[in-house]
Write a structure and sequence with these properties.
Helix content is about 75%, strand content about 0%. It is an all-alpha fold.
Length: about 120
């Protein structure tokens, strides 16, 4: 497995990395989730959104919060998880369940307002 382009060396840099992930994810969720949802509630004629970007943003927010809270220990835990097949299976199943739930919920909400994702 190749080394990442940037690898934090202390708690502060790991937490800043987490802050970057958190802010990027929050921006994705805001512009692709909240703003279109507010437009749908206001009965705008056309609302554009991407459920895929909303779900990606959710993962960025969760990963960012994890790194903000745990710091360098959280970063090394994620890196060590690559060598643990059981942890990878659990993480994959949780990620798939969260993705399916988000996909279903967001599709249901937007379709209830008469908007359909492409």
């Amino acid at each position: 497995m190749s080394e990442p382009l940037y690898q934090p060396r202390n708690n502060t840099s790991a937490r800043f990395l987490g802050l970057g992930f958190f802010l990027a994810g929050a921006a994705m969720v805001w512009w692709q989730g909240v703003v279109p949802l507010l437009g749908a509630i206001a009965d705008k004629p056309q609302v554009e959104f991407s459920i895929k970007l909303i779900i990606l943003g959710e993962f960025f927010v969760i990963m960012g919060l994890f790194w903000i809270v745990r710091g360098l220990a959280g970063y090394t835990a994620i890196r060590a998880m690559q060598k643990n097949p059981r942890a990878m299976k659990i993480l994959t199943m949780v990620a798939l369940a969260a993705t399916a739930l988000s996909w279903w919920l967001l599709t249901h909400i937007f379709e209830s307002y008469g908007y359909f994702s492409t």
